[in-house]
Amino acid sequence: MTPTQLKIYRGPVEIESTTLTRGDGHDETVTVSFGEVLPLIVDAVMSERTWLSDFEVDDVTISRDLYEVLSAYQYFRRPTA
What we know:
Elements: E1 19-22, E2 28-31, H1 34-46, H2 64-76
């Protein structure tokens, strides 16, 4: 009997949607769509992954319109006093 060879599927390769750039120093930044990263962050939060605390003080750059929507959402979700 021939042994079965299994392959690990890691999902589709989407290199074109990710941009890797280097700054003046040795900082590396990656630009990805919000839709690509959001499900991963939500899953990590829901799973209470401890590595999230490693990034609590990191800055995140978002578009102005997303910032305005998030600010309005934060204001309107406050419990009424």
